[in-house]
Every structure is written in C-alpha cells, then in structure tokens.
Amino acid sequence: MGLDEDALEYHRTDPPGKIEISTTKPTNTQRDLSLAYSPGVAAPCLEIDENETEAYSYTAKGNLVGVVSNGSAVLGLGDIGAQASKPVMEGKGVLFKRFADIDVFDIELDEEDPDKLVEAVKMMEPTFGGVNLEDIKAPECFTVEERLREEIDIPVFHDDQHGTAIISGAALINAADVAGKSLDELEIAFSGAGASAIATARFYVSLGCKKENITMCDSSGIITEERAAAEDVNEYKQQFARDVPEGGLADAMEGADVFVGLSIGGIVSQEMVQSMNDNPIVFAMANPDPEIGYEEAKDARDDDVIMATGRSDYPNQVNNVLGFPFIFRGALDVRATEINEEMKVACAEALAELARQDVPDAVVKAYGDEPIQYGPDYIIPKPVDPRVLFRVAPAIAEAAMESGAARTEIDLEAYEEELEARLGKSREMMRVVLNKAKSDPKTVALAEGENEKMIRAAYQIQEQGIALPILIGDEDEIRGTAANLGLDFDPTVADPSVGDYEEYAERLHELRARKGITRSEAGELVEGDSNYFGSVMVEQGDADALLTGLSHHYPSALRPPLQVIGTDDDVDYAAGVYMLTFKNRVIFVADATVNQAPDEEVLAEVTRQTGKLARRFNIEPRAALLSYSNFGSVDNEGTRKPRKAASMLQDDPEVDFPVDGEMQADTAVVEDILQGTYGFSDLEEPANVLVFPNLESGNIGYKLLQRLGGADAIGPMLVGMDEPVHVLQRGDEVKDIVNLAGVAVVDAQQE
C-alpha cells in the first residue's frame, strides 16, 4: 500500500482515531467510585469554589492544553473546515503527549468569525491550563491570538506563527555561527508574507537581526513603502515595508546572506542562490516541496550553502515539534499567564545550544547510524532527541519566572529531575545514583578506550562531573578520535604501550603465577589487553573502578577482573543484576549473567548482594526467591534450593530486609495473591528483588519483561566484587556506559 492507504488504515483501525481518555486513579471498588464522583467529589469542588487556583491541585487543568482550530488554513490542504481538520488536531495531541507528557482536548470550531472564535475560547478558559491555536488563516489568526492574550489568563500560542519562527530562529543562530556571520549584519530575504513569515521576521528581530535588513516578498513582489502607502498590503505586512525599488524575489535575494522560504515549492532557482552572499543560509521551508530542492541548492555553489527545509529526509529539518510541546511544558509547570517573547527567545537559544553538544546513540540510530555532528548539516536538534524536554522546558520556566509571567516559582535543578522522570522511571532511578556520584566523584578506568563510544562516554562523564575517567588505549588514536568527534575535552589516557607499567606486569604475574601465567605472558597481557591492564590498575589502587566489555563477549570480559580483583572478602560469588523499571514499579533481577546453576549458598549470596544494590538506588529491598513451586507445593531438588536459601537468609541476623521463597513469579509480584492466598508470607508487599533459580531462567525472565512487559533495563550491574567492576553488554550505548559509571562511583563511595 502507498502512504495514503497506510494512513487511512492507521486511523480507522479500532478504536478509530489516535487518542483516548484514560483514568489516572483507581476505579476498582465502590469506595474508589465514591471518591471519583458522588459524594466524594464535592470536597474538591468546594475547595476550588473557595480558591480558584486550587483547580491546579485537584483537577487535570494544570496539564491540559486545548488545541483549537476552525480548519481554515490546514497545512498543505487549505480551508477544509472544522470537521475535516480533526485528524490533524488529534495528531497534535499525540505529539504533545509523546514528547512532553501533556494531555490534550482537541476542539474543532465551525466558525469563521474571529470575534466568535475569541468568545468561544474565552468560555473554555476554566477547562485548560493553556491554548494552542492551530490552522487558522491569516490575517484572522493575528486578531484571535492578540485578543486572547489580552483577555484570558492562561498561555495562548499560535503554533503556525511562532513555532516555525522559534525553530528556524534556533537554526539561524547556529547557521550564522557556522558561517562566521553576526546576526545584526545579516541581510535576509523572505519569500512569503503570511502569518508564519511575519511572525518569523518579528522573531528574528528579537534574536538580534535588524528590521531594516529584512526584505519581504509576497506574491506581488517586494513589500515596499510605496506599496504600503498605497494600501496594497495589510497592516501586518506594512511593518516590513522597505524604502527600496519595486522588484521580485530574485531582486530581494541578490546579495542576501539568508533566504527564508515560507511560500510555495519550486520558485527559487540555482541562479538566485548563486546571486547570494558568500556561504549563504537557505531555509526553504515550504512543505511538502521546498522553494528549492536540497541537492539543487547545495550544487548551486562551490562554497558552503547551509540548507534547512521542512522535510525529514534531509539534514536540518525545521520541525515545530521541537518547540510547542516543551514550550507548553515549561509554561504549565510554572502556571504561566502567557507565552511571551522572552520565553520564545529562551527556547530558540536552548535548542541552538543543544545542537552543539554530543548526540545520543539512540538519536544517531534513529537516523540511519550516520554520524551527527555540529556543523552545516546539523544546526538544530533532531525531533526524537529526548534531551530537548529537559533543556527547553527549564529554559521556558526560567524565562517565565524572570519576566514575571509565572504564577509559581520552582527549583530549576529539581525541575530538571522531574522532567527526566517523565521520560521514564529508569531516568528517575538513575538520577538518584548520578547525584550521589557527583557528590564525591571517583576515578573510573575505561577499558577499550579507543572505542568511539567509550571516548564519547568519557567526555560526558567528565562534563557532568560524575567521575574522573581514564581511557585505556593508544593515546594518539584516542586524542585523534576525540578531536574528530568535536569533543571539547582533554582526556586522561593510560597508554600501556608507552607508559612505565612494569609494576602492573609484576603484580599480574604474582597473582597468576600458580595459574600458569609466566612473567613474559603477564607483560604481554598488561600491554595488549586493556581488561587485564584496567583490572590491575584498580587492584593496585590507581583507579577506583573499572568498566569493560563493550566489544567482548561477557564471559571473556569478566574473566580478567575475576582473576585479578576477585570477589569481596566475605563474598564467594559475583552476580549480574538488571534493574527493570516500569511506569510505577522498579524490580531488580538476579542472577542474569554469571552463575549458571547456583546452589542454595550462591542463591543466598546473590540475594544479599542484590539487596545492597537496591539500597544504592534508595529502594528498600523485598526479596523473593523464585521457582515454579509455592512454599513447598512441589518438593524436589530444584525447589529445595531456593527454599533453603530463603531459610538461610531469614536466619541470618545481618539480613535486615524481608525475604521469602520459594514462590512463583506471580505470587511474588501480585499483591492480591501474596496477601490473599499466602498471607503467612514474610513479604507484606510485592517483591522488588527477584532471584531466579538459575542463569537460564534469569536471562529469559529479564528479557521477556523488557521486550513484552515494556520495562527499561539498566545493567547488568556486577555485585560481589572486591572492587567496583561493571561489565557492559556488547553494543551498549553511550548512555549505558555513563549510567554504569555512575553506579561504579557509588560502589566506590561505599568502599
């Protein structure tokens, strides 16, 4: 099927459309329903009646945006009316929820009169925390937005005007930087003089461009003072009339530094691009066909054409989704009365700054694994970059507070953590550990230091103050890769081939001489295998922790640390633990990587160590030893092992958290089963530490929970070692390395 057929099938599949309403509180019992509605609902009603701002405390108002349209100017479709515009408005709601966790009611109004549109939205003000105007034709859209901003006390934002202005403004900041030009010196030619073009020109002035340097063209040519005097253009266009001779778009582009296209496709030729100033900036944003094609513009000149379009299949897509969800997120969270110019500028500047930073692996993968680095082909962040939420929303909130638009003051540092939690429980949990790590950073050795991911991780670890990273590998290669990646940091490198590490070889020989390693072999291992080098470095106290395994199979990466560092003095067995995070639950799964067929002694030790790990994440452990049996319902050698392990732990006075077993997995995690059928259990609440009876079941279990249960997995985290060591999975992303570095630092702090 083609795109149209696929889209129709996508929308009509049951249930039709793209959105639904779901409840956020329990509705399972009669009491739940009496709290949700009558008679309990009277209490919050009376509180709000006494103080209207309590609506933000007792209702969804503070996280609810109305997407309002009359369908008179739907992108690419024109005036199709209110009813036909509904799929677009539902789609806008999807984007709000997906990118910023904001709920939306889409409101399609069958009304052309701007005065009546204003009155309709005003009457809905008590419902919403903000209003996003969408697809209302010009010039009526100016009137509607201006009046609503004056007459209601919640943020109003016309995305068609300001969204493109803000996102292209961020691109302009960086394009000018890449081209080596100053904003206040740019000569800018506009093709198009509708709502979006006028708002964009206004916004560029807010960023520092000069109004007298902007030449705007509509379908009749350059907007001149002569045309304005003859009232040939409306009042909104008149503000950009210039005292220049009449002419067309080609005249406006000649000698210009910037072309901004918000008109129709195919109206710009290569000759027109050739007539522009050196290193021109071309923003051809007509959709679906830009004013000039990407390849055409690039091929028009020998110097560097910095090109942006509205399309996702070319670099530098100007996509409004980079703006409106995060603008409203920040505005809602400080209960702003408006979205003012200071907030819009803050958004553009935050986006521009983010584009200059290292790009997460997940974003690179989403765009075909091609390198993404600040420069002519990357001047604005990608829409799927999760960092946009916790960079832009705080910038909006801060600007609202500083400009007086905020009703509520918030702690920006704590706010960033709250925003990260909106992206998933795993981010919330990792923030706990990373904050602990930052409070007392330790030295972390990174084996396989020549690997690009390790280098990027080292940069982020150092930049964020999580640890003091040491990259193990060829120093010239490491520094060359860092420079090629555009990373602005001076890495600490331990190069086994050039440094004086004889003592490391001596120590390795001392430890392994009776295991068959000669002195010369020890020297070769130290110089040629970063896992052995890093293990000895940590064992000797020259680093506090070790990360390895990025390009090795787990067993081969684990072997050197086990041989050199070994397990803790009172521990005989190491284990691999995954933390699985769900929307409202965190579970630690062990052992998933190390012990193939553990006996009761190993199971007990794994449980102890996993309980300690849970506490590093501020989680009080409740451990269940799993089986296919419930408390003796099946009695054989396999079920006795977890049963005996549970008994050993219950008798151990040093184990200060609840443990029980053997039990089935659903008994461990479902409260009704645990407390109903097995009320005698030592677990008063569902378990959050699940100890599997063997490696096979543990590995299968965590992967099923991750893939089918929708859990985010952090790990594997190695517990039980004498010094902090964590073995990565092959192919882990940079964020996984950074996270495990944080865990390693907290481990070292405990040491």
UniProtKB/TrEMBL annotation:
GO terms for biological process: malate metabolic process. GO terms for molecular function: acyltransferase activity; malic enzyme activity; metal ion binding; NAD binding; oxidoreductase activity, acting on the CH-OH group of donors, NAD or NADP as acceptor. InterPro entries: Aminoacid_DH-like_N_sf (IPR046346), Malate_Decarboxylase (IPR051674), Malic_N_dom (IPR012301), Malic_N_dom_sf (IPR037062), Malic_NAD-bd (IPR012302), Malic_NAD-bd_bact_type (IPR045213), ME_PTA (IPR012188), NAD(P)-bd_dom_sf (IPR036291). Pfam families: malic, Malic_M, PTA_PTB. SUPFAM superfamilies: Aminoacid dehydrogenase-like, N-terminal domain (SSF53223), Isocitrate/Isopropylmalate dehydrogenase-like (SSF53659), NAD(P)-binding Rossmann-fold domains (SSF51735). Residues 16-149 form the Malic enzyme N-terminal domain. Residues 161-401 form the Malic enzyme NAD-binding domain. SMART domains: malic (SM01274), Malic_M (SM00919). Keywords: Metal-binding, Multifunctional enzyme, Oxidoreductase. Its cofactor is Mn(2+); Mg(2+). It comes from the Archaea. In the N-terminal section; belongs to the malic enzymes family. This is NADP-dependent malic enzyme. It comes from Natrinema salsiterrestre.
